[in-house]
Amino acid sequence: MLEVLIFATLNGLVTGFLLFMLASGLTLIFSMMGVLNFAHASFYMLGAYFAYSLSLYFGFWGGLIFAPLIVGALGALVERYGLRKVHASGHVAELVFTFGLAFLIEEAIQFFWGRDTKNYQTPDLLDFPLFTLFGQEFSAYRGFMMTISIVIFIALYYVLTKSRVGIIIQAAITHPQTVSNLGHNVPLIFMGVFGMGTALAGLAGVIAGPVLTTFPGMATVLGSIVFVIVVIGGLGSLAGAFIASLLIGLLQSYAIASDVGMPDLLNLFGISFDRSHPLNDLWTMNLPQIAPVLPYLLLVLVLIFRPTGLLGKREE
Amino acid sequence: MKKLSISSKITRPFHKFLSAISLVSIFMLSNASTAQEPVRIAFMDPLSGTFASIGNTGRTILEFAVDYFYNSKGGILGGRMIEIVSLDNKQSPNETQLQFRRAVSEEIQIIFQGNSSAVASTLSQTISRHNRRNPGQEVLQINYSAVDPILTEDNCSFWHFRFDAHANMKLNVLTDFIAADPDISSMYIIGQDYSFGQVVSDTTIKLMNEKRPDIEIVGNEFHPIGQVKDFTPYVTKIVSSGADAVVTGNFGADMVSLARSIIDSGLDIPIYTFYAAYDGITATLGEGGKNKIRLIHNGVANPLPTEARKQFNRDFKIAHPNYDVTQPRIVNALQMVVAAMEETQSTDPYDVALALEDMRFTTMAGEEIWMRAQDHQIFQGLSVSVHTDEGVEFDADNSGWGLVTEYQVPLEETVVESSCQMRRPNR
Predict the structure, then answer these.
(1) Which residues of B touch A (CB under 8 A)?
(2) A 65-124 residues with CB below 8 A of B?
(3) Are residues B180 and B213 in the same domain?
(4) C-alpha dihedral over A85, A91, A93, A95, to 10 degrees?
(5) Per-residue pLDDT, B30
């Protein structure tokens, strides 16, 4: 049982940190522009595909460095020549724009790369078990994923709270007019943040691609969960996104690892049903089976009891 | 003068009626003069979304086979071409209903469909209802891949023909193969949480209890289909359960992710699957899956038995270098449907269905396969093949890796009873 607990925690943390890389960009973009970027997970997918193609020529490390830069540049262009123009027509137009963009990116990826799974592998350098516990290996690559995510988190935290750029960004979020009057180029800051956010999503794609497989559905699988995190954490709150990411990563991991279910709960009350009961599906349901749905359940609960999210500040 | 007065008496509606008649007659005439209108066949499978790659490959094989065997040789039924119409059902039962309506409105009477037993069930029910209400406009379902047994058992339909062995037939052979391995003493079953995944789990447990009661089932896990990002937590459970073997009915991305997580965890146990090959899966598994991953499938993998079958593969590869002949059963299905049409000189689904019943057909692999009339289930030899790079004449994903058949069971031994009580349309 102990080994399951340890590995469940590790797995949960790896997933949690990865989710945070996506959620951080999304929540930053939301707090600045007031719009949820539906195409955010598509940039994550773009990152994986770019890195795959680059890795064929420059190896994994080339992909790791250049793919996020390309995705970030694309993101910046989208902001400059797409979102900024649409912005004049209001939030709904922006929302629809990013929604359409998500479809566009997915189709474009299928057009250029095809629909099959891409053979994007972990680098040979990291192809060894970091440690073996109770007969199960924890691959070095997973350790690497975790390290990258933690470094990004610390760097992001430092830049946003301690550096001059961060202070300007924070000011631009709340008081864009004033910042503009002080002589800063606010649209440029917006473009930069959007580019940065998408680059982070791209980076997440680069490091997730080899383990979570690179295929055209990868954005869909992760897309909705990222929104859940941003909402649970509180829209626009970076710290909230961090907590929610780890919370959901661990929640899912523990739920899968657990072996409890409705039968156990019913046994507690001394109730039992036979298999032919019409509600058999309900009685035999167990926690691992519904693990992937738990985040959405949590989302509903949070929205009911704390609509602003864990750390969100809603200004009306 | 007389004529003029008559024509002036002709009223406007009558004019319209006349022109309508002339239009219809022109239409009929032109129809008669170009009697060689194509035989249209719908291919309804996911062509977008998470499982698009499987559908896309299937369509490519069907279209290639149509050209290869018929259109390039002057068509069928004395010169009619076959036209494949692609309908994207996104592997969703709802979308399937919509696409079915479209097929009907385009007067297509034969639908090839394979992916997802849930979709196949929906389609089968929809078609049965439609055919009952619209005699003369029936539609035939050619199921080349959906393997939930119920489709040819309790829910069998006269209008549904299955060209793949169903899950119980496959599991019967697979469990024989597993039971013969004395090193296995415990087993873990993991699958997608829908009809097919449940069938795989239930049947495996039942059969293993009969064949090797000493093998302990140490896990029986279901996960939502196409929703799991990372299978590592599941693999953790497999490792801690101490299982000697894994059985899964997963397909598509769920299959790759699961196998990769198992390989990455350093777990060195055999994985018995239905669909762990092609569409990028073989290339992705590569070295890590060598001699670990096994598949149960109909027909045979390497070495291919006949020159005709090899030549088909080679010609297909020339035309579509990035695709593989993943499902030769699509070709079998097409050939049998065409044989039924030629036999009856008709494309009417009722005639075709009657001709298909009890048909024995020799495939390009030189094997005689049989369509049982009782439940419309195909019977042919089944194989267990292993993922390897040795002795692979025809690889998958251009990766050098592919499947080599290890264990073969002839047609006669795959025949199982069916509970099907078919309701036949009375004509």
Answers:
(1) 48-53, 56-57, 193, 221-224, 226-230, 232-234, 236-237, 239-240, 253, 256-257, 260-261, 264-267, 279-281, 283-284, 286, 322, 397, 399
(2) 107, 110, 114-121
(3) yes
(4) 110
(5) 47
Compare all CA atoms of chain A with the CA of B46 and give the residue at the minimum distance.
A115
CATH number for the domain that contains residue A75: 1.10.3470
Mark whether B341 and B330 lie in a shared domain.
Answer: yes
pLDDT of residue A173: 78
Instruction: Decide if pLDDT at B55 tops 50.
Output: yes
At B275, list the tokens.
């669909």
On whether both B189 and B66 belong to a single domain, the answer is no
pTM over 0.80: no
Domain shared by B46 and B156, yes or no = yes
B316: buried, middle or exposed (CB in 10 Å: 19+, 13-18, 0-12)?
A: buried
Asked if omega into A288 is within 30° of 0 (cis), the reply is no
In a domain, B29, yes or no: no
Give the residue from B205, B264, B279, B322 with the most A CB atoms within 10 Å of its CB, the best one to mutate. Answer: B264
Cα gap A15→B231, rounded to integer Å:
11
A 118-157 → B contacts, CB under 8 A: 118-121, 129, 132, 134-137, 139, 141-142
Q: Structural domain of residue B135, as residue ranges?
A: 39-165+307-380
pLDDT given for residue A5 in this prediction: 84
Do both B205 and B352 map to the same domain? no
Q: Is the pLDDT of residue B33 over 60?
A: no
Cβ–Cβ under 8 Å, residues A201 and A98 = no
| Range A219-222, long-range pairs (CB < 8 A, 24+ positions) | A219/A41, A219/A42, A219/A44, A219/A45, A219/A102, A219/A105, A219/A106, A220/A41, A220/A106, A220/B49, A220/B50, A221/B50, A221/B226, A221/B227, A221/B228, A221/B229, A221/B253, A222/A19, A222/A22, A222/A41, A222/A44, A222/B229
The tokens describing A91, both together, are 């939030």
pLDDT along chain A (316 residues), means of 10: 82 90 88 83 93 90 92 93 86 88 90 82 81 77 89 87 86 83 86 91 91 83 87 86 91 83 72 66 73 87 87 64
Q: Does A233 touch chain B (CB under 8 A)?
A: no
Residue B113 and residue B184 in one domain: no
Asked whether residue B235 is domain-assigned, the answer is yes
Are the C-beta atoms of A130 and A140 separated by less than 8 Å?
yes
Q: What gap in Å lies between CA B388 and CA B396, rounded to an integer?
A: 10
Chain pair A-B, CB pairs under 8 angstroms: 135
| Tally of domains within chain A | 1
Q: At a CB cut-off of 8 Å and minimum separation 6, what does A124 contact?
A: none
Is residue B51 pLDDT above 60, yes or no?
A: yes
Q: Using alpha carbons only, how large is chain B's radius of gyration in Å?
A: 25
